[in-house]
Every structure is written in structure tokens, then in C-alpha cells.
Amino acid sequence: MSEPITLPSDADKTGRDFGDEELALLREVIESGTLNCTKGTQVKAFEQAFAKRFGIPHSRAVTSGTAAVHTAIAAIDPEPGDEIITTSITDMGGIAPILYQGAIPIFADVDPVSLNVTPEAIASRITARTRAIIATHLFGNPCDMTGIMRIADAHGIPVIEDCAQAFLATDHGRLVGTIGAIGAFSLQQGKHMTTGEGGIVVTNDPKLARWMILFSDKAWGYGDPKPDHYFLALNYRMTDLQGAVARAQLAKLDGVVARRRRTAAQLTEILAGTPGITLPRALPEATHVYWKYPLIVDPTVIAGGSDALGAALKANGVFCAPRYIQKPAFECRVFTERKTFGKSQFPYSHREREDGTKIVYDTAEYPGTMQGLERVVVLPWNELYTDQHVHFIARAVQAAVAKLAGRPRGTANASSHADA
Fold it and tell me: Which sequence positions are flagged as catalytic?
């Protein structure tokens, strides 16, 4: 290995594209003295610009990615005990809103290489109680939306796209987030564009848009002839300070994504043919936007598998996340103990009292999930990587593989894939 270098981090300014543009708009807000969005201008301008960039008529900015998913689910308006199919590999912020709206998460298995939920797995989970499907585009790699929409449309089930990690990713020429009924995005610190915390939802449907606007503002009908609080709802309004940063970040988004894709393609080219490693790739007619860069490790080739490779990379200055989230979502205590609202176990208790059936999350039903988590090593990625950083990471991976596989670098012929 060459002398270690410090990689840019999306946790601070070394890996985030911030500058005078954000400061100028923040100054406008501070000088105006109006920091909230109901009277301010920045959030409104951001919503309009985001909707225009995505070619969609309606958007609503909210306080977080979790709030975005919650707002989307609320617009679908499930009945208590209804089921919402989602992926077994996702952040809790994409799952907790299901329970908060009184619905029950039904986890579908994933492809063990992309770790994305599959149409076949979704189809196997559909019941008479299925109210919605959440398709999470993991790591910036689009799900098979053609297959998912075919199944959803056949059953008349709306699809919510969780695009927290997939800004400007496309499937068959369409931006993810615009394919299903609602797209939900996160503006958290590490995303392609960020306001520290924040989120936004988009839709083509004016009725869903109206519900999301209301839900994110206590269901108060601002501007209505006789406004009222129409239903149970929360305050998820974004501040104009966040809106200012979001506007500046949106203007940079295309460049950010292009830089991430360019450097990721570089790494893919260098690592092609590395034994025991499968590299990320998008499905045909889709584009990957690399929130992170996941490697799939073959433990029959690389001794110690993902844990050993991850440890070797960390020792050489490449922070990474072996196994990503460590365990599938359904093994978290909120699901194993059903600790939801007091001791009620609601909504599980409501559903099981109603029709006698039980919801069971059995690990044996998720072979793709278990294999994917066992084998993945997630490399950090951001828009400020240079050629030097890419080569440093590549050398670290090659050195670790050479040591753990017990072979000289460049030998063997394990399957590797380039991004579409």
C-alpha cells in the first residue's frame, strides 16, 4: 500500500459541496427576519424548482426523510391493520411511519447482489389487506420499477418510491420518484443534496398533493374559505433557513451526481476482474447514482468474507460498513417485541384480534436478505472524490483481496460487473 491519505467525508466540508451560494440565500432569510416557511419565500421557491427539475407538478418540503415517507403514507390513508409492503433492508425512518399510521409493515425479500426489493418478492407478499408498496432504491441503484409497477397496477395498489439515496437515478429514461404514485426524498447530511435534515415529496396526483400539504401542516386548510383542522396530522414544515440551503443545493445536484457517477465508473473499471468481488451495476435501461459504492464479497474466495475485507480496508484508511445495517429490519426489537404504543402492540394487536391471523417475520423466508447482508461491504462515496482518492481506494481493495484470497493481484476470474 502507498502512504495513506484522508478521504473526503460527507460528514463535514471535506466531502460536501457548500459555498457562497448557500451563504447568500441564508443571508436573504436572516436579513428578512422571516425564518418560517408559511410567511417566507425560500421553501416555496425550492418546492417549485424541485418539481420543475423532476418534471412533476406537485412537491412538498418537510423536515426529514422520515417525515417525507410518513407524509406519503398518510396521503395513502391506510385503515388500521392494513398492510404496506416494504423492503427488509432499509433505514428505520422508512418503516416507523408505517406503524405510526396504524398500518403493518410486510417485508419482502431482496436480490442478494443489488440488495433491492424484487417484483417477485413483492408479488408473494400481496394479500387482500395490502394498501401500498414502498420501493426503496438502495445505494442509488433503481429497483426494477417496470416489474414493480406491472404488479402494483394489476392489483390497483399505489407505489411509494423511497428515493432517499437515489436523486436523479433513472429507470427507462424516467427519474425515480416520478414513476410511482409518490416519490419521497431525504435531505439528510449524507445524501446527494442536503440541508442537514430535511425531505421532500413529489406526485402527479393533485388529490395526493393536497393531502400531503395538509398532513405536513396539522391538516389546517390555509387559504380555504372556511379552514379547519380536517384530520389528525403533524407539523412537518421545513424552515426557510433549510429552504435556502436546499435551493442552492438543488442548483448543484446535476453536477454532484455527474461527479459521483464519473468517479464510481473509474473505480469499477480499475476493480473489474478482482477475484471474489462483485461490483455494483444497474439494471438495463437504468442509471446508478452512487449514494454509496457496495461490494459483494464471495467468502469462498476471500477468507473471512465481508468482515475480513472490511477490517483490512479500515486498517488501510478506507472507512467502510461491512454488512451495512448488520441485521434485517424485522429483527429489530420494535418488531420482535412489538413495542409500539404503550403495551398495546398496536397495530399488530388490532389486526390479529380482527381476523385471527398473525404476522410472522421468519428469517427463513428471506434468503436474499440474509446472504446480501452477510456479503456486502459498503464503501463511502461523495462528490468531492478525485482521481487520487479513487486510486487510493482501489489499491486498498486490491491489496486486501490479494492478502485474503492468498493470490497475487490481478489473478482469478471471479465475475464482476460494470454500471449500466
Answer: 191
